[in-house]
Design a protein that fits this description.
heterotrimer; A alpha/beta; B alpha+beta; C alpha/beta; B: about 15% helix; C: alpha/beta; Aspartate Aminotransferase, domain 2; 4-stranded antiparallel sheet; about 15% strand
Amino acid sequence: MKELVGTTGLIFNEPLLWEKGAKGRIGFSLPRRDVDPCPLDDELKGDGPDFPDLSEQDVVRHFTRLSQWNFGVDSGMYPLGSCTMKYNPKTNERQASLPGFAGAHPLLPAELSQGVLKIMFDLEQYLAEITGLPAVTLQPAAGSHGELTGMMIINAYHKAKGETRSKVLIPDTAHGTNPASAALCGFKSILVKSNDQGILSPETISEVMDEDTAGIMVTNPNTLGLFEENIKKVADIVHSKGGLVYGDGANMNAVMGIVNVKKLGVDVLHLNLHKTFSTPHGGGGPGSGPICVTEELERFLPVPRVIEKDGKYELSEDYPESIGKIHAFYGNFGVKLKAYSYILSMGANLKKVSQLAVLSANYIKESLKGVFHLPYDKPCMHECVFTDKNQEANKVSTLDIAKRLMEYGFHPPTIYFPLVVHGALMIEPTETESKEDIDHFIETMKAIADEAKKNPELLLEAPKISKVRRLDEIAAARKPCLCG
Amino acid sequence: MSKEISELNLPDDVKYTDDHEWARLEGENLKVGLTDYAQDQLGEIVFVEMPELGDTFEKKEEFGSLESVKAVSEMYMPVGGEIVSINEELSDAPELVNEDPYGKGWIIEVKPGDPAELDLLMNKDAYLEMLKGLE
Amino acid sequence: MRYLPHTSENIASMLQKVGVKNLDELFSTIPEDCRRKDDLNLPEPMSEWELNDHMNTLAGTMAVSPEYKVFLGAGSYDHYIPEAIKHLLMRSEVYTAYTPYQPEISQGTLQTIYEYQTLITRLLGMEVANASMYDGASGLAEALLMAIRITRRKKVAVSNAIHPLYRRVVQTYFAPTGYEIVEIPYLANGRTDISALDNLEELAAVAVQSPNFFGCIEDLKNIGEKAHSDKKTLFVTCFTEPLAYGLLKSPGSLEADIVCGEGQSLGVPRSFGGPGLGIFASLNKYVRNMPGRLIGQTVDKDGKRGFVLTLATREQHIRREKATSNICSNEGLCATTATMYMASLGGTGFRELAGLNRDKAEYLKGEMKNAGFTISFDSPTFNEFVVESPAGFETTYKKLLKRKIVAGLPLAPYYPELDDHYLFCVTETSSKEDMDALIKEVTS
């Protein structure tokens, strides 16, 4: 075992903002007053917010110290399954902060915003090429926003045919956002069980698909990291009853340049630019969740849409069957810009991205097989799912393994998801981790499995060297303290 | 780690449902709560979502839910009837459901529409058999 | 490729461990007829330096300050952003982290968002704020759906003086649900006509925006009282310019039940409309019906203060189809930015900056009046106002674009009855000289 990556440094304590400062301080350069004050009616006037007053250095130290309590992709390997925590190229940040983009007002006349309109237009074309689905909207602000938009389109499609359908099929491996998005469109979720191979069986779909069912929501590769091999048959069954296939593209990082999503029979697909296309997660967002659709569904896409006329770009509202708007403006342009910059940096190498992401996941799967219980022993895509079954005898659980990993300098994998696997550890290395780092992760996981046998206390008490230790989530939920 | 079946507290003076609730006749009304098995499976309860006084439900209808930190579990009526009382103490101390499931941790009081429905519920032995089947 | 560290030796030894001959074989579980046969048809990869040139060129086509004087607001505002904030946001432990699912190594994000929630409740006079929504518009849609859940009613009343693009988003969210939206007209003074509420019953919510789309400060006190004349109805207020609450009474002090809006003003660049920051706040009694993530304070095993994601049972990953929303990723980094911004200004600075915005806008308003424009609405305003132009201004407007001045937003596309009306915005970034130059141009 090489030297541990994790170590202790001097980490500072730091109080809450309002426990600092002194009235009258300021950390902002107020512009010179060059006009006269104009009093406001007392009836309307309030007292102003009770914010602490701080100097610029107070603010800088505060947030610098706080940042040191975080773990990011730039700190170390972040194999969080289904989240595709790949490296976030720095050039993307540079491009998005160019004043011409960062300072652009969304309601500028088209002739004064050709640059951003071209970027949106070209990015739509690129995403269409990558997925195989010809029409794209960039408006959804995140993956689940894209799901909602997609389900609205499916709803609008049935309505346009004069039908109302009340149900949607959702596999038991689905992300929780799928049923929640469907419910916002008034659909009732019908849970579909995966087979003993961890994928959908056409027979199961045949049994439940009927003419009151609007369609199916399929994540492919699914959340077990497996390719839905029967997807075409499933799609045919759904289509034969007049339904549509919604594809959750959260796991697109496995199949760029490998699969044509349209050929799979998918009618609507969302992408997570903050996963597959390298834009940072920002500690929870912002994301961007474009959706790609078939020619048949193009007319329902949100407005406005970017169009090209004689080499000039403009925004058009002229789509009478559109579902409308789902964001005040055009979605998270700043995030799309970073994805655009990534695609231009990579070009057709995106296929290599998927190949290496899948190679790395399979390599981990083969290396840890036996040490950890592997519920589905078959080739995986970009992620693999283990469980804590082998460790149960030592009264050590997935949670303890995750917490111990932190002390070795790794972010834990996704845990306890997918729900169909008891005690799941879902590992997604991504293509940007080197073989040395992956090997180190594998060695660490083996070392932890060994500790679980010999000295389980190490796991049960972990982490000890982090800024805080395990937190009392029960107290937090029983007596919520949500503001100070 | 959850309790073994032999460790469960299953009193004789209540009736049991297959949704793991108990019901005890107190005067004309039924007190309803969660069995020891259910509270043990759910783990630390952090919130109890209650029906409103005067609401009426059918037998087996959902009347509220229990939340742990990472799960939600619905509660269903053991018999049809009207909610005549709810355990107000649980809003401040949901842990009572864990600590004293058959006493201070009771959840609702129901005025049964048809008292005969009570006879359809399980006694301790039948419930115990059912739990063994779940193993 | 600099983001792909695998050497051919690495690949060979990994393939061997996996037990396949080449990279293609890794995909053996994908049926032949699902595969793509052709290569991806994308532009040749650019070097970092080619990309810089390409992006510089595109960015150069954009009309932005200081080259352009842009008097546009309407939900996206030009405010100075301190260098310190830009610098702090480059700390990659902040922006390359995921949602704080592992609290022990995410305390930076968690404490920041807890501070954000707190400062937002103080700004709006509310009891609880969530960790953010996508933007002001989707936040308003979610607020109305929340009111429908709480009241179990099916109809909402929405002021016509709410940002027209926000109302369109609400319509999209409501279209599949069957819930009803009733629009309340605005008065000649630019405020919402609350007498229209007289004929409405069984409302889940009454929603207004203040300052509203026309920049007018609504009489929230009266509207709130009117909305609450039915005890069950919730009073929802929204905003596009949170800086206004440095000066104005908070919506919470005027009986608002849910407050939502756009927080882009708080240090977030405009970025052609996104990412922004959906601010969402409410009262404690409704917290279990709120959408979005919440951070709570607690203690660790050693009794030390710490923060966690809490009340997660409301959310999609646990309650699935019964969740209060499907939201998962939010605008975390923008909420972080807003926290830094509010901390930089402090209470004192926030109020002063708000005052400066209003005073500058009032200056331009007065000058435009002198220059022959009609001030359309006589209600008090914050940093935006509507003018009716003299005849022939349309030509001048186009001429001004060529002279690098964007003279307000034409309102006719949003309100057909407001032909020849323009919405102007002035913030602290407009100097008196800029405004004088604008007046000179429109009068020459």
